[in-house]
Amino acid sequence: MNVIEAIKTRRSIKGNFLDKPVEKEKIEQVIEAGLWAPSGQNQQPCRFIVVTDPELLAEIEAEMFRIGETVKKLLPIVGLFKKELSGEKGRRAVKSVRPHAFHGAPGLIIIGAMSDSSSTYRKDCSLAAQNMMLAAHELGLGTCCMGWITTIHKSKALTAKLDIPKGFEICQAITIGYYDTDKTPKTPQRKSVDEATTWFLKDEAGE
Question: What are phi and psi of 40, to 5 degrees?
Fold first, then answer.
């Protein structure tokens, strides 16, 4: 599988996970792919927390749902202070709040960084996540990015269980696991290059 093929055939897996643990060696390969992602000034701020304990996964999932439901109820107020949750953006965001956000995935990789590690650490974590999802796809694993994971820092009990130090910010997370490839989601519609691109081209005639 080449890179372009991996990009075009990767899907966000929401369900259809198999009751089969992911080998530690494969998780390490996925994390290594994240470490090879570019980062601002090569600061490499990203750090990873791997969770495969079913009870802890369920606890994280439940806390995400609890906080998400609270945000949903208070959305008109929250939107005044957080632009990313204002208006239609906020209404779309809370649609993804559900009690079983991990869809039965047997593993979760949390991606974050110390907030004083770099001026670009949030972007760096996103770049790492993309590398990791593509690597997982190459290894026959399904993934899905978990945006609401950033809310669990509000739980002192969870941050203690996950050994998250003060100043550490959770930026991304991906679920990971083997899945039923016969039930791979259909190819989504994508915008064309023409729709998404503005060109300022050099005049090849030299004029």
Answer: -55, 125
Whose CA is closest to 30, among 169, 114, 171, 130? 130
List pLDDT tens digits, range 43-68: 999 999 999 999 999 999 999 888 87
Q: Is the pLDDT of residue 116 over 70?
A: yes
| Amino acid (one-letter) located at 101 | A
Q: Which of 112-116, 134-138, 202-206 has the lowest mean pLDDT?
A: 202-206
Q: What is the rounded CA–CA span in Å between residue 85 and residue 79? A: 5
Question: In Å, what is the CA distance from 180 to each residue of 122, 177, 185?
Answer: 32, 10, 10
Q: Is the pLDDT of residue 147 over 90?
A: no
Q: For residues 11-49, b (16+ Cβ closer than 10 Å) or e, as one string?
A: bebbebbeeeebeeebbebbbebbeebebeeeebbbbbe
Query: Domain spanning 3-196: which CATH class is it, in words?
Result: alpha beta
Q: What does the alpha-carbon distance between residue 143 and residue 128 come to, in Å, rounded to a whole number? A: 14
This prediction's pTM: 0.90
| Cα 185 to Cα 206: distance, rounded to the nearest angstrom | 48
**d(C-alpha 180, C-alpha 141), whole Å:** 10
